[in-house]
Every structure is written in C-alpha cells, then in structure tokens.
What we know:
- The chain is mainly beta.
- It has one domain: Lipocalin.
- The protein has helices at about 5-10, 15-25, 45-55, and strands at about 30-40, 60-75, 80-90, 95, 100-105, 110-115, 120-130, 135-145, 150, 160-170, 175-180, 185-195.
- The chain has a ten-stranded antiparallel barrel.
- A hairpin with a 4-residue loop joins strand 3 (about 80-90) and strand 4.
- It starts with a helix and ends with a strand.
- The relative contact order is 0.19.
- Pfam families: DUF4166.
- This is DUF4166 domain-containing protein.
- It comes from Lederbergia graminis.
Amino acid sequence: MSIYKQVMGNEFFKLHPKLQQRYESTSFRATGVMYKIQGAPKLLAPLLRLGVKRKLLFPEHGKNIHFTITNTPRIGANGERQIHWERIFYFKEKKRFFNALMSLDMERNIIKDYLGEPSLVYSDLMFFTTDGGALQILSKKQRLVLGKLEIPLPKFLQGLATVTENYNEKIHAYQIKVNVKNPLIGTVFAYEGEFKDEDIL
C-alpha cells in the first residue's frame, strides 16, 4: 500500500481512477507543459538564489514551459518508505528543479515533506478528495531545516501551499495547479499546467 493511500484511507477511493492509479504506484514519470509559472517578488532574490542551489525555488517565470515529473521509491535510514519527487522545468537556457522527499507519519496521519536537496524546508501535508474526484493537498506546520536542526517557523514566515490535481478525460491528461502563499507578501511561487504519464505518450 502506498503512503498516499494509507494516509487518505477511504477518501482515496473517491479520487478519479487515474489519480488512484497514479498515487497507488510508488514509481511514476510524466512530461508536460506548464501554462504559466509565476515567480516570487524581487525582494526574495537572496532566498531564490539559495533555492536554486538547493533545488527548491528559482527566479524564472513564463508561459508554456516544458517540464518532467518523476516519482521514485526510496528507503530512509530508519527503514521508512519514502517517495522522491523530482520536478524539472526547462526554460530556454536553464533547467530548474523543485524537488522533495515525502514519507508517512503514522502517528499523526500526515505526509512529511522535506523540500529541497539538501532539504531546506519541512512541511506537514494533508491530503483530501474534492467533490469532483480531484486531489487537494494543503501544507500546514513548517520548519526551517539546517542540517540536523529543525526550527519551527512562525506563520508570517511560512510559505503555505495549496495543490489541486485532477484528471481531464477530454484531453487524457493530468492537470495541476500549485499556489504557495505567504501571509505578508502574497504569492511566493505558483504554477499551473498539464502532464501525461509515459504509458500514454
């Protein structure tokens, strides 16, 4: 059983069948296009430079940006099951990443999300099914990760994400919308697009 199926329980079976298939599997690879990518405000330039080095954030933005997404299973040092997320965005002259490592916290029934490589930010993730069978992911408590030290972030410093993923049967593609907001400065990072898994390309 995948960590996503386990954390969602009966909610998992309310997802569109293609989303069930996607999140039941521990391995997944797809290619697609982001209709638009919205970057962070210029005042976050120092954070963005660090984000590029950590494969987390980047200053580029634009429309119709090609990308790939790859999910790969791993086993952590403590034996826990993990899913590595590699998202690569192909701008004209640069390749940018938005990577993460997810695992299951069985006691709290949430997904643990370590963002960046090496990890820079930690976030609790909660998974829901919408009335239309789409998947919605919300980030909650966050921590700054400094090696083995993890410092809780106050709300005004957090970048809270809302993710909605659905399957469009008319175009036979997954559609994704991500918005990361900070209470003080608004949108930190956002993108919206579609992708198809390799089996149907």
